[in-house]
Design goal:
The protein contains six helices and 16 strands. The structure holds flavin-adenine dinucleotide and FE2/S2 (inorganic) cluster.
């Protein structure tokens, strides 16, 4: 699997909602090698502060060589990243990690919550590329409110996909959790759920899928220092005992392989 460490140009910054930013890079090598669920480590400033690269899921790639990330400003690194100007160059390392294993599109249900929506667009576009226009995956997306969710729907709608939306305050779609929507679908065995979002959401999805005997892949987020299996900073506990590295064994895992009770 090819990986690259490249200085790439930031082409565009879009503020989609309060503190939610989408960046487009000109990164043809990384974009061409990337698979849904993989991530890049970004060196935010050339100097030492912040020292560590930050991990971001690959949100979308395009045949023109562009690569997008979608992120929320939560701390110093993401605040600085949101302030980088178009035309400036940043060092990207990637694509990293193991991504989603794609099954049948018509038996796929994608569930993204909050910034966990980021890798779902790339995954959806790969599913659609496989089979357009006959079969399409089911897509459920959730966020706190309409302001956060609405700007993220267009990418899926442009693929011709209908999105089942859920918001915490009921301002768009179902008033409640994505897991309520998933439960309401009563998916048959043979389906696979592909999920990324806050840990409690993915734990609930894992529980539901176990009950319904549905296969489930989750993309987990941990703090990561190196992103390449060298620092042991990203350990995730396994059901069978021991730990896996989120960066090199994941970030996508079969949900049933992980220990959710911690
Ligand atoms: C594989 C992977 C993919 C990711 N993809 C995305 C994405 O597509 N979009 C997105 O918005 N975020 C994503 N994240 C989370 C993102 O890396 C962190 O939000 C970012 O590193 C925070 O940097 P900071 O300097 O702004 O925050 P810091 O100042 O370092 O921390 C601010 C707050 O964020 C929390 N935080 C820091 N790092 C992480 C982390 N890795 N995961 C969860 N919480 C963290 C801290 O505990 C703290 O509460 C991903 C993380 C991983 C591991
Ligand atoms: S982040 Fe260093 S081992 Fe995973």
């Amino acid at each position: 699997m090819s990986q690259f460490q490249k200085k790439v140009e930031l082409v565009r910054t879009e503020v989609l909602a309060r503190d939610v930013v989408r960046l487009t890079f000109d990164a043809p090598d990384i974009a061409a090698a990337a698979l849904p669920g993989q991530f890049v480590m970004i060196q935010i400033v050339p100097g030492q502060d912040p020292l560590l690269r930050r991990p971001f899921s690959i949100h979308q790639t395009s045949s023109d060589g562009s690569l997008q990330i979608l992120f929320k400003v939560v701390g110093r690194g993401t605040k600085l990243l949101a302030e980088v100007k178009a035309g400036e160059q940043l060092s990207l390392l990637g694509p990293l990690g193991k991504g989603f294993v794609l099954g049948d599109p018509d038996k796929a249900c994608l569930v993204g919550g909050g910034m966990g929506i980021a890798p779902m667009l790339f995954l959806a576009s790969r599913f659609c590329r496989q089979t357009q226009p006959v079969q399409a995956p089911t897509v459920i997306l959730g966020a706190r409110n309409r302001q956060e969710l609405e700007p993220l729907l267009a990418g899926f709608q442009n693929l011709g996909l209908e999105v089942l939306a859920a918001t915490d305050d009921g301002s768009l779609g179902h008033h409640g959790l994505v897991t309520d929507v998933l439960k309401g679908l009563s998916l048959a065995p043979g389906f696979t759920v592909y999920s990324c979002g806050p840990r409690p959401m993915m734990a609930a999805i894992n529980h539901l899928c176990l009950q319904e005997k549905i296969s489930c892949q989750v993309s987990v987020e941990t703090v990561m220092a190196c992103g390449m299996g060298a620092c042991l900073g990203c350990a995730v506990p396994l059901k069978a005992g021991g730990y896996a590295h989120a960066c090199s064994d994941g970030p996508v895992f079969e949900s049933g392989d992980l220990l959710w009770s911690l």
